[in-house]
Amino acid sequence: MNALSIRNLRKTYNNGFEALKGINLDVEEGDFFALLGPNGAGKSTAIGIISSLINESSGSVSIFGHDLKTDRARAKSCLGLVPQEVNFNQFDTVKSIVFNQAGYYGTPRKLALQRTEQCLKQMDLWDKRDTVSRRLSGGMKRRVMIARAMVHAPKLLILDEPTAGVDIEIRRAMWKMMQDVNQQGTTIILTTHYLEEAESLCRNIAIIDQGLIVENTDMASLLARLHIDHFVLDLAEPIAKVPYIPGYQIERVADKVLNVAVPKEIGLNQFFSQLSALNIKVISLKNKSNRLEQLFMDLIESKPAGAKQ
Amino acid sequence: MNYSIALRTLVRKEVFRFIRIWPQTLLPPAITTALYFLIFGKLIGDRIGTINGATYMDYIVPGIILMSVISHSYANVVSSFYSTKFQRNIEELLVAPVPNWVILGGYVSGGIIRGLLVGLVVALISLLFADIAVNNALIALSVAVLTATLFALAGFINAVLAESFDDISIIPNFVLTPLSYLGGVFYSVEMLPGIWQTISKGNPILYMINAFRYGLIGVTDVNIQLAYIITGGFIVTLTLFSLFLLHKGIGIKN
To answer: Would you call B95 and A13 a contact, using CB atoms and an 8 Å cutoff?
Structure first.
């Protein structure tokens, strides 16, 4: 079963801006799905419509087979949303924010208290339960929103840039948490500007640009399309000029640092043989840029005329 | 789906909100109305004599109680719902399977409860100044509840349509307060010259205050049934309009 099905979804705002131009999208149950796109591409509008925060102009959305128009309550019951920006009452305590949300989903008091405790413990916030939320750090506020979104045990969780602005340690902890939630059976749709995050967490991906889906495939197939890898080499000795090796683009960044673009069909063996012949010793090598980032830029820089609707 | 749990949650949240900030919500009306009773009722009222057979103090007590109910039921909903919109907490309700009538019912109930609680506080303070034998408790209570409902609904509509904090103070300052003062809180409409009597009878608050006054002290300038019809008519109209706004997402959805 599809956790989410979108058919011919369009949205034109009152000012005439066409944010969505008739998109179709399916997300399978259990998936960890990335929805990516540059700012203003339409992904926030799509998420807003899925979560009933924005009225669509036309088209349909169904969540676990429940149409959002005709079977609204059931569709909404399946969904949890972690929005981009903090949107809880900053004067409420952590516990009341999560507990009240359970109540809005019709969860009986006793079960709501149990679920609140469970979610706050899972987010490592139980000792902050009586703290007024405005006193929390940015990372904690994000975790409150995740706990709030999970308190009614949704089957589909949408995380809209959940790690934006949090430090690396918290980000890694949140990745682990998202993976755990997904492994427990919750379908996750993730939007993020950290493409490394999408690459390491998500199995399938859609890229939206100018209101159209410009790519919708599995992560492995998408990455396989990458023709060039970029590497950074740390050298043992400084070099005076950039070596010339046919087939490779080499750039000198510093005395002992080189950037190199390696075509996949040629590979690295030949490159290292040539370096050895030139008596250039390499101490270490690392991937320069995120692979998905490269593809992402290629996709959105090309005109979405052949976009997948 | 059990919507009663969602409704209870929302009402409880709203009640806790105004109780948590009681120095802003419950204390000021107690002080203000005590001053009204002291200055208008006691100091000036003693020189006025009686109106329709009631002492001036007894005459103004129902109007001041109901004026407090009106302003606080309105203020509670308009400030709470607008803050909810402003801070985007409204998204908590829009994402959840909460039907529009529960959202409306939850906020309006919060307004009614605060309005009645403030009315009770003011009534208790009035006991220090007046000795009122209630004429018809059922009429007094029902008019208070209906009036609180009407103005809680009006506050909700104001909050939905408001685009700034300025917008939520315009109606209370420039419409509600004048209509309340001109609604016969401090005088009988029969004391006005002809044309002003006719104009005053176009003010719906006049009917509510007089119906409430009838319930408390048995004195009224208007027909009680007409007061119920007018109040009920407004409640039905404002309820339907509120539900229409929520259905369309006006002011709360893009």
So the answer is: no
